[in-house]
Every structure is written in structure tokens, then in C-alpha cells.
Write a structure and sequence with these properties.
It is a single chain. The model has no long low-confidence stretch (mean pLDDT 93). The protein is globular, with a radius of gyration of 18 Å. 46% of the residues are buried. It has a seven-stranded mixed β-sheet with strand order 1-2-3-4-5-6-7. It has 280 residues and is an alpha/beta fold. The protein has ten helices and seven strands.
Length: 280
């Protein structure tokens, strides 16, 4: 039995429609999955219906963008929340608006750099509800300014690169945890190896109720897995609260920034998936 609790569809910045994505999950032998699109729940029903056809346990998911102290971008995963909760939907709709404003500024930066990119180049790649940097990356590739999505990030739109623009307003991790939990869900910090904010993660867990850490991620080395598993244990000893350890592929598309990416190669040990399901 295999579980993958982190993947994306065309409703945000993934390469496959939710039903196509679930088909790939079935072929990969996955038995427990969650669709965690950025700031949108638009693909959940389609994915859930397709998962049911294959006997796959489906868990509603989302990935919320936040900004931590010091300005670092941090993603918070939400699971098993009430997806139609009005307050929840109002919140994510507002921050999707911030994403659109960010895209407008990135297009302006392209023009300042004499790159021939405008809305007509980007919009064909926006297949869902969320404007994301990979959509700009695909436009840059299409116009010949980069040879791959990864190349576009490395040269133009990655953190600190000339076209990168932070969103004008973002949730804090603490706010994202509250938003998810008020809708009845569980909040997990995603791929913490990207942040190096272990002390803040501990603070979010002890003071803000963070439910767990994505310990097993395709970009986590064995050393990183050990590090964040130990952090979970440290938090448990300090707070007496059990921390969930989740994981997944963070799948977008086989060609999205990683070589040979495919579903079904999840690193999440099933014992942790069982604990997660028991918590639900």
C-alpha cells in the first residue's frame, strides 16, 4: 500500500487535469492520495470522483502560500477541511487575487528587460484558478527565452532573479494554520528543507497548533528526513502533542523542474500514512 499526500493539477500549476492525475496515481499503485493545489479547491470533486472509481482513498487537500518572519516564503498544506466553508473560500479567493496582481508585475518586469511577454502569452498556460510562476515559465520557454521550466526559474523567476516578484500580501504561517483548522482541517508545513526555519516551525507547532511536518518529500535527503523526524520528536517532548509526519511527491508533471518525476515513487512510509488516517 502506498500513499502520496502532495500533488498538483491544472487547477493550479500542475500539468494534468485532476482525473488524469488520479489515473496516473492508479497506474502507480497508490492507495491513499491528496490533491493539494495552490490556493484553490477547484479540482477536488473531479479528483475525488475519479479516485472512487479506482478504490483509492481520497483526502481533500490544499497548499497555502504564506510569508514567515524575515520574509521567507513558506507553504502550509491543509487536509480534510470543509472545502465549501464560506470563510475558507473567501480567504483563498482573496489571496488568489494577490497572485494575479503578482503576475501583472512580472509581465511589466519582462517588458522592462525587453522580453516580449504579455498577458496573451501567459493566459493560455493558466488552465485553472491560480496564477503561478510556472505559467510565466512556460511562456518564457514558448518565446525562446528559456529551454525549460527549470531554466526559466533559474534565470528569470526564481527567488532573487530579475523577474521574481513577491506577492503584495500573504498569510502568515500562523494565519494559514488558523484558516485550515477553523474549516475543520489539519495543517502541515510543506517541504521544510527549503526554509531552514526549524525554530519557527517549533513555535508554530507549540503556540499555533501546527499538526505536523512533511518529513518525507522527494527533495528531502536521508539526512533531511532524519532532521525533521527528530524535530517532530523534539516538539512532542516539549509540548506533549503528537506530531504527524506526512509526505508525497509534490508532483506537477514529468518535465516540471525535475528529471524523471513520476507518481507512485512516494517516500512516505505507510506506517505514517496510517497514523495520519487515524488522526482524520
Amino acid at each position: 500500500m502506498k500513499a502520496d499526500l502532495h500533488m498538483h493539477s491544472t487547477y493550479s500549476d500542475g500539468g494534468y487535469a485532476p482525473s488524469e492525475l488520479v489515473e496516473k496515481c492508479a497506474k502507480g499503485g497508490l492507495t491513499v492520495i491528496s490533491l493539494t493545489d495552490h490556493d484553490t479547491t477547484g479540482g477536488l470533486k473531479e479528483a475525488k470522483d475519479q479516485a472512487k472509481k479506482h478504490g483509492i482513498r481520497f483526502i481533500a487537500g490544499i497548499e497555502l502560500s504564506t510569508r514567515a518572519k524575515g520574509g521567507r516564503s513558506v507553504d502550509i498544506l491543509g487536509f480534510n477541511f470543509r472545502s465549501e466553508d464560506p470563510a475558507f473560500q473567501d480567504t483563498i479567493a482573496y489571496y488568489r487575487g494577490m497572485r494575479k496582481e503578482r503576475m501583472e508585475e512580472m509581465i511589466e518586469k519582462c517588458k522592462e528587460m525587453n522580453l516580449d511577454i504579455d498577458w496573451s502569452d501567459v493566459l493560455p498556460h493558466v488552465t485553472g484558478h491560480t496564477y503561478s510562476r510556472p505559467h510565466m515559465a512556460k511562456a518564457l520557454v514558448e518565446k525562446g527565452y528559456a529551454t525549460s521550466v527549470k531554466g526559466a526559474f533559474d534565470r528569470y523567476i526564481g527567488y532573487g532573479k530579475p523577474i521574481y516578484v513577491p506577492k503584495k500580501e500573504e498569510l502568515t504561517p500562523s494565519q494559514a494554520i488558523k484558516v485550515i483548522q477553523e474549516a475543520g482541517g489539519l495543517a502541515i508545513v510543506a517541504h521544510p528543507v527549503f526554509y531552514d526555519l526549524d525554530d519557527q516551525i517549533k513555535e508554530w507547532a507549540i503556540h499555533d497548533g501546527l499538526d505536523g511536518i512533511e518529513v518525507f518529500h522527494r527533495d528531502h535527503s536521508k539526512e533531511a528526513i532524519k532532521r525533521f523526524s527528530s524535530l517532530c520528536e523534539e516538539i512532542e517532548q516539549a509540548s506533549g502533542k503528537k506530531m504527524l509526519q506526512t509526505g508525497g511527491s509534490d508532483f506537477h508533471h514529468e518535465s516540471f523542474g525535475r528529471e524523471g518525476e513520476e507518481l507512485g515513487l512516494t517516500k512516505l512510509p505507510y506506517e505514517h500514512a496510517e497514523r495520519f488516517l487515524a488522526k482524520l
